[in-house]
Structure formats: C-alpha cells, structure tokens
Design brief:
The protein is 30% helix and 29% strand. The longest helix is centred in the N-terminal third of the chain and has 16 residues. It is elongated, with a radius of gyration of 20 Å. The strands form three sheets. Strands 1, 2, 3, 4, 7, 10, 11, 12, 13 and 14 form a ten-stranded mixed beta sheet that branches. A two-stranded antiparallel ribbon has the order 5-6.
C-alpha cells in the first residue's frame, strides 16, 4: 500500500505542474522528438501509461516555445500544464544564437545537412567586408524564409513537403528584427557570428544572404541557441540526465523569478509571433 500511495503521489505531482522551464536540445533530433522524449521520461517515472491514439485526452499537456532545426542545438523552452498558454511569448520574444558559417558552398537546406547546390570562391572576402555587410542586416529588415522550414503550406510543413519531392512555393519576404549582430571569429572559409533577434528570424537565411551579398555563397555549419526569452543555455537549460520530475519542479520554481506571470511573459520583446529557425 505504501508503494502504491507513493506512486500516486508522484503521478499527482507531475500532473499538477504548471509553468515554463528550459531544456537542452542536442543536435540531431527534431524539437518535436525531443519534447516527446521528455514527456515519455516524465510519464514513465510517474508510472503513467501513454495512450497514443487518444490525442484529445492528453494525460500530460506539454508544448515548446519555438522550433529549433534538427541540425541545431541549445535552449528549448517548454510549457507544461497551464504553462503552455504562455508559450506565445517565447515564440515572439528575443533569442540569441551563435552560428558557424562556411563561405564557398551553398546547400538546398542552407545548412550542413543539405545537398551542395553551388560552389564559389571566397578568397576575396575579408573580415572588414563581413563586418561592414552585417550592418545591412541589423535592425528591422526584410527576410525570405528558407524552403526547408517549419512554416506551412496547405497545413503541412514546407520541410516535409520538400522531403516528399512535392512542389513548394517560396514564402514572401517578411519584416524581422535583429537587435545585435557581430563577428566572433573569422577563419576563412569559416566565420562565427553572435546574433540577437526577434521571432520569425532564420539564421540559415541570414548566412545564405551574406554569401550572396559578398559575391560568394555560404551555409550554416553549426547553430546553437544560447538564449530564449529570459532562459539561457548554461544557467537554465536542463541536460537530458536531469529530465526528472523533481528537477522540472525546481526549474519551474526558478522560472517564476524570471517570468512571474503569464502577463510578464507576454511583456518580453515581441515583434513577430511566427516560429523561427
């Protein structure tokens, strides 16, 4: 009886959780895959069985606040219970990234997992050229999203349609905000950028555009989201080894100091309420 009561207590603790917290998404799986893995771990710990076919009757309501590409890693903000209603602030809020780009090669996905579609020389590009060009991409700019993205066409993600070989229409350029953009390192053909941007911004599109602007081509080799809203990678993101109910409870408690209320969450920098890369 004691064991049974304890199990019920753990399950009730999990199902009673409401709020936001951050986890570390590693390179490889999709954001949805990572969220499902987290959910599975928590439900297994609580001894709760998942009913995969009964999606309308979720035993644990969870969501994330902005897709990270499968090739990217870093902060992924998660909402649990009533916290899922606060995720819109994460989608539209400020984010920071560190990215490594490579001049001389373009790919169909704008990152390293795609097929090389073009090769150009890059010997003429200096660090000064790169820094000068970055100024054109700071502030409110117009940006065309990549075809391989989480944006949808007829209810399906463009990336999924592309993988099926179906025809995909390019989305029109849209206004996005770049708060800060700087060169951390330049070792041709590679360059490292630090970026702070608003919602709807695609780092892959930026790197692709930089290559064209500098009379070459480029793609993203590595992408790390280091901050999303008030959540930072090194201070707040739970590593996979800490995906336990007790650690999530602690993380949510810490979150209340960062995002004290739903209203507080929505007061974060907001420009665009679209998912980004």
């Amino acid at each position: 009886m004691a064991g049974s009561s304890a199990a019920i207590g753990v399950a009730e603790k999990l199902q009673g959780l409401n709020g936001l917290f951050a986890i570390h998404k590693k390179k490889g799986p999709t954001s949805a895959d990572v969220l499902n893995l987290l959910k599975t771990k928590l439900l297994e710990e609580a001894g709760i069985k998942q009913h995969r076919k009964k999606r309308k009757k979720q035993v644990l309501k969870m969501g994330h606040g902005g897709t990270l590409d499968s090739a990217a890693s870093g902060v992924l903000v998660v909402g649990i219970g009533k916290g899922t209603k606060m995720l819109s602030g994460m989608l539209s809020g400020s984010k920071k990234y560190t990215t490594v780009g490579e001049f001389g090669k373009a790919t169909d996905t704008f990152d390293a997992i795609g097929m090389v579609t073009e090769e150009q020389s890059y010997d003429h590009i200096t660090k000064d050229d790169l820094e000068r060009t970055l100024k054109k991409y700071t502030g409110s700019i117009m940006q065309t999203p990549p075809l391989y993205s989480a944006l949808k066409q007829n209810g399906q993600r463009l990336s999924c349609l592309m993988k099926k070989g179906e025809a995909v229409e390019s989305k029109p350029a849209r206004s996005v905000m770049v708060y800060d953009l700087s060169v951390q390192d330049y070792s041709p053909p590679h360059f490292t950028l630090n970026i702070e941007c608003g919602g709807g911004f695609y780092v892959r599109s930026l790197v692709n555009d930089l290559g064209k602007e500098l009379s070459s081509c480029a793609h993203v080799k590595e992408l790390i989201r280091t901050k999303q809203g008030p959540f930072t990678l090194y201070e707040h993101a739970l590593q996979e080894g800490k995906w336990t109910i007790d650690e999530v409870v602690k993380a949510i408690e810490n979150c209340t100091q960062l995002v004290p209320s739903e209203g507080g969450c929505k007061k974060l920098k907001t420009e665009i309420s679209e998912q980004e890369k």
